[in-house]
TrEMBL record:
Pfam families assigned to the protein according to its UniProt record, in alphabetical order: Hydrolase_4
Protein name as it appears in the record: Alpha/beta-Hydrolases superfamily protein isoform 2
Domain of life the protein comes from: Eukaryota
InterPro entries reported in the protein's UniProt record: AB_hydrolase_fold, Hydrolase_4
Species lineage: Eukaryota, Viridiplantae, Streptophyta, Embryophyta, Tracheophyta
All copies of domain Serine aminopeptidase S33, residue ranges: 29-183
Amino acid sequence: MTSVGHQRIVIQNNHGENLVGILHETGSKDLVIICHGFQSKKERIPMVSLATALEREGISAFRFDFAGNGESEGSFMYGNYRREAEDLRAVVQYFYKKERLLTAIIGHSKGGNVVLLYASKYNDVPAVINISGRFHLEKGMEGRLGKDFLQRIKQNGYIDVKNRKGKFEYRVTEESLMDRLTTDTHASCLLIDQNCRLQNASIDCFSNVHVMIRLDQLQCECHLPETNTLDI
């Protein structure tokens, strides 16, 4: 099936913020929603490559920016897993109202945690694919926030993160830090309905060689080729 075009769609979340996305329309009612990772956006390679690969298989795909990222309205916030799950909720409901058949939600990196969190709360999607999502969210934070980050954020209320050149990148508030530390990926997975097909995968975004993502579960829903893989 050939593509019938790319459409820019704006969806309002429950905070009144406009979320901007691109629909890869194939003419099929089947639809996969793709979620980006931390400090990312819908134009990054994993999201575009996934949407394009699905498009080649005749499956429509929608990639969008979470609030505070890319073209979407709102302020960028560290952590923010639960609120991003609610952004995803707004997107899912939008397409259900359009009578699309949502076959899967895919999340890359932080987006992988978001799709798991979403499925654990709403249980209204048949398949969830987590690509390189972090399981232990409490790990790896010292490298980004520095030593004694808990003590410093409790004392000052926030930590400003800078890049290697000393340029300000973003602010981490105590509230947003606690959002990450209290997001339990294992507990979320246990709450996902047993009828929902769950697949974990990995992707090398920096390789020039084509990447194969195992999508055994998505194949069941979207009728992908028998190789059980998706070339991106």
